[in-house]
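Homework help board

Subject: predicted structure for assignment chain

Our instructor gave us this sequence and asked us to write out the predicted structure in token form, then describe one feature. I got the tokens but I'm not sure how to describe them. Can anyone check?
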Amino acid sequence: MKRALLFICFYVSLSFSQEKSSGYFDVQLFRGNIIKHTEDVGHLISGHPDGFLVSYNWKTFGKKEWEQVYNYPDYGISFHYLDFKNQYLGYNVALGLHYNFYFFNRNLMFRISQGIGMTSNPYDKETNNKNNAFGTKVMDNTYFMLQYKKENLFNRIGFQAGFMLTHFSNGRFKAPNSGINTVALNVGLNYNLTNEKEEFIVDSLPPSASYKERIKYNIAFRTGISEGPVPHLGQRQFYHIGLYADKRIGRKSALQLGTDVFFSRYLKDYIDFVSVAFPPGHESYAASDTDYKRVGLFVGHELFINKLSIETQLGYYVYKPFDYEIDIYQRIGAKYYLYKNLFTGVGLKTHGGRAEAIEATIGVRL
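My token output:
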């Protein structure tokens, strides 16, 4: 945590050292509740979590096409601290990158952030075995925030308030991993670094017809490391292959339809475990030779921003011999186009509120 705070202080001083800037700071306090998304986390809810959030934001004014299309969003970096008010969870910190999108005459702001989190009290078999939410000290953090925002109410100082949802999980990189979702009300102030007002560029968008494309075909190879739901089964590499078609329906969006094939090797270990841990006839029993592979069909949506895009998919297993989790799965991820047809990215595959894997992706769009 000390290193993170030192980094923020350095970053703040560097930003203030610039004579002119189109950016601003915001500082916020929040307080809320842990969402009981599964019975496994009931014992971890013992108070009202609270904390603070500090952000630096760069404004856009339409110099690039995507800035005009998305109503001149901000992008920035943020740090937040969250005290869970629970002896087993302790506190978490997170550092992330975010976008702020504006609606209703720029009075309503929606922020989405993706970053890295760290917990003070991870699971330990001997000293902290009640913490079944965080199996690792370092993990993934995502948060969403919806706020009323008003700038320059008192000279350069403005006000903002709303609510946020923050999620910490290691994506089952290592068990246990129930994860924690916290919803909170927040209130804060923002401070613009300059009084100079820049005008938005509004007249350089190309015609919408320029975004018409034929159907594109995608091949995505996803990999990473995961562990079964029982601690100490061992971490294993997984390989997920996606084949899908997409059709662009405008500047911002494309619709997807395709199939996934999952080679999740940690499931093989888990099948071996349940084959000896439970007797035949038990609802959790499976024979040791049960196939661990799965096949799914999915529909999806891709939101194009710049070279970056946000991908969401909803799938259904059509082949799943081992009865593990529910039959519906989801994926949300970020893609970055290295070249016109080559992309990379990272995504989170889940079953409802339960994460299964953090996927590193490379693929082509032909």
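Reply (TA_rk): Your tokens look well-formed. For the description, you could write something like this. The longest strand covers residues 138-154. That's the kind of observation they're looking for.
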